[in-house]
Amino acid sequence: MKKSDNLSKLSNDALLKTLKSAKAQFIGFMIFFVLLVIGCNYFTFTIGPGYYTLVPIAFIPIIIANIFSYGKIRQEAKIRRLL
After folding, report:
1. Which tens digit of pLDDT belongs to each residue from 23-52?
2. DSSP assignment string, the chain
């Protein structure tokens, strides 16, 4: 991931700004995913199984990538003792 290689080159202020942005993005995506799972479960129980039942599974790789990206940014901030 190119972005993680460039984290060591960022200034402290830029790193904190990136961390804040990554945290907001992570929280927003997790809220979206929870609502997606709730909606898909609702449709599954009311209408029956369909293609929408598998939609949350397609987003799992994106969640994993978000977790690792946020973790790398947070780790760089901890190394610099900004947290």
Report:
1. 999 999 999 999 999 999 999 999 999 888
2. -HHHHTGGGS-HHHHHHHHHHHHHHHHHHHHHHHHHHHHHHHHHHHT-S-GGGGHHHHTHHHHHHHHHHHHHHHHHHHHTT--
By residue count, the chain amounts to: 83
* Distance, CA of 8 to chain centre: 21
The pTM of the full predicted model, rounded to 2 decimals, is: 0.81
The pair of three-digit structure tokens given for residue 57, joined into one six-digit string: 């599974």
10 Å Cβ neighbour count for 1?
10
Q: Where are the domains of the chain?
A: 2-79
